[in-house]
Structures are given as structure tokens and as C-alpha cells.
Write a structure and sequence with these properties.
By secondary structure, this protein is mainly α. The longest helix has 41 residues. The N and C termini lie far apart (79 Å). Helices cover 85% and strands 0% of the residues. The protein contains eleven helices and no strands. Helix 5 packs parallel to helix 8 and helix 8 packs across helix 10.
């Protein structure tokens, strides 16, 4: 019996060791990511001063795409189609649900409230992660496995500032018109869907829309989008910069980056919303 009891810790020891090593390696990864994020943010000034042409080139590439991609798959086009569909869903679901209780006239209120606080920033953030962010991870990953980043370091170029900081700056700049497009498209789709599909009077819709559209909410929604853009670009540049394992490793890095950035974007939206609106939501229903 004593032999079995003394053998039990020896059997558990390898398992505990693996758990401990996994815990330590996880904290090490968090530390390395934090160090990279700090270095990227600190290098923003260096990127603005020395790599202005690279920032301009990335702005054109990220916003409109290149070649035929600009017509069908540029980020602006993707955001436009996404917000058109989500705005139309606001019209369909909002009108039908409100009509069930006899207050379908408040569809304009739903558009002014939901589109501003949720739909527009979330759509802009997701589009940024799925297009610009994923592209940045793939580009940096390809440069890493082909040793181009090492070559930049050899010739005296600060790779973090040239590759990561420039993409962070560009992502924040590009998300500004993307958010404007997302907000406008969601408003237009919700209005057209309610008026044309369901026959609601444009005067009724505009009255409730303009009554409940708070300009300050638009500003805070823009702040949410900027915060999500910063987090998304930091995550994607890190995974691309540290990619390993050849082409398969680059694909794996893109998948991990998209997963992490989408989850982080939702947390940023939640935290900023709690900080701005609090528990009450700063909402007062009045006619």
C-alpha cells in the first residue's frame, strides 16, 4: 500500500510539469506580445518621420486594393456591402418585431440607436480584421519566412517601425472613411428598406430617426472604431512579424490573428461602451 502511495506522486509529476510549462510559456507569449506592442507604438514617430512614402503606399493598397481587386474586393467595397446587408436586416427585423406590438413607427429609432452604437463600429472593425488585418499578417509572414525582415535589419532599416508601425498608422487612418461609409450605408439601407419594402411614410421614419439620433453617440461610436482598429492592427502585425514554419505557418498565423483580433475587438467594444454609457446606457425614451 505504501508502495502505491509513493508511486502516485511520481506518476503525477510529469503531468504537473507539463501544466506548469504550459502556464509559463503562455505568460512568456503574453510578455513578448506586450513588448512588441509597446515597441510598435513607440516607433510611430520614427515611422512618420522616415517612412512617409511607405505609409502613403499602404493607404492606397489597404483602402482601395490594387488592380481588379479594387473593383470587387477592396476594403471600401466590402464594408459597403456588409453594412448594406446589416442595415437592411435592421429594417426587416425592426419593422416586423415592432409591428407585432403596434409601434412600427419606431423603426427609425431602432436604426438611429442600433446602427450607431453597434452595427457601424462592429462592421468596420470586422471588415478591417478580415481584409486589411489578414492581408498584413500574410504579407509580414511571407517576408519573415523568406528572410526579408532579416535583410531589412542587416541594411540598417528598423523593421518594426518600417513594417509594423506604418501598418498601425495606416489602419487607423483608413478606418476613418471606412467608418463613415459603414454608418452612411447602414442608415441608407435601413431607411430604404423601411420605406420601399414596408411602405412606411418617409416623414414618420425621419421624425423618429432624427429625434433619437444623438450626435454625441456618433462621436463615441467613432472612438470605439478607432480603438478596435488599434487593437486589430497590433495583433495582426505581431502574428505576421513572428510567423514561423514556412507557408503553412503563415496560414496558421493568419488564422490565429483573425481569431484573436475578432475576439479582442468585441471586448474593446464592450469595455468602451461600458465606460461611455455605463449601466443605464444613457437612453431616455421620449417623443
Amino acid at each position: 500500500m505504501m508502495t502505491e502511495n509513493t508511486a502516485l506522486p511520481s506518476r503525477l509529476h510529469p503531468r504537473l510539469t507539463r501544466v506548469r510549462r504550459g502556464f509559463v510559456s503562455g505568460w512568456n507569449r503574453i510578455g513578448s506580445q506586450t513588448q512588441f506592442y509597446g515597441l510598435t507604438i513607440r516607433s510611430i514617430g520614427l515611422a512618420v518621420v522616415h517612412y512617409k512614402s511607405e505609409i502613403v503606399r499602404l493607404m492606397a493598397q489597404m483602402s482601395l486594393g490594387v488592380g481588379a481587386l479594387a473593383l470587387i474586393g477592396g476594403t471600401v467595397v466590402v464594408v459597403g456591402f456588409l453594412t448594406l446587408s446589416t442595415g437592411a436586416l435592421i429594417a426587416v427585423q425592426g419593422y416586423n418585431q415592432l409591428a407585432g406590438i403596434g409601434v412600427e413607427a419606431l423603426t427609425g429609432f431602432v436604426s438611429a440607436y442600433v446602427n450607431v452604437r453597434i452595427i457601424a463600429p462592429v462592421t468596420a472593425g470586422f471588415a478591417l480584421a478580415a481584409t486589411i488585418g489578414a492581408g498584413a499578417t500574410a504579407q509580414l509572414g511571407a517576408m519573415r519566412i523568406s528572410e526579408e525582415i532579416d535583410a531589412l535589419e542587416v541594411i540598417g532599416i528598423r523593421s518594426v517601425a518600417y513594417l509594423a508601425s506604418t501598418r498601425l498608422i495606416t489602419g487607423v487612418i483608413v478606418v476613418i472613411p471606412l467608418y463613415c461609409i459603414a454608418a452612411l450605408m447602414s442608415f441608407i439601407a435601413a431607411r430604404m428598406g423601411t420605406i420601399l419594402l414596408y411602405g412606411q411614410s418617409s416623414g414618420v421614419y425621419d421624425h423618429y430617426f432624427e429625434t433619437f439620433l444623438i450626435p454625441k453617440d456618433l462621436l463615441w461610436s467613432f472612438v470605439q472604431t478607432i480603438a478596435m482598429a488599434i487593437v486589430i492592427m497590433l495583433i495582426h502585425t505581431y502574428y505576421g512579424y513572428t510567423a514561423t514554419g514556412g507557408p503553412a505557418g503563415v496560414g496558421e498565423a493568419v488564422g490565429r490573428a483573425v481569431r484573436a483580433s475578432l475576439v479582442s475587438a468585441i471586448f474593446v467594444l464592450l469595455l468602451v461602451s461600458l465606460a461611455v454609457y455605463g449601466q443605464s446606457g444613457s437612453f431616455h425614451l421620449a417623443s
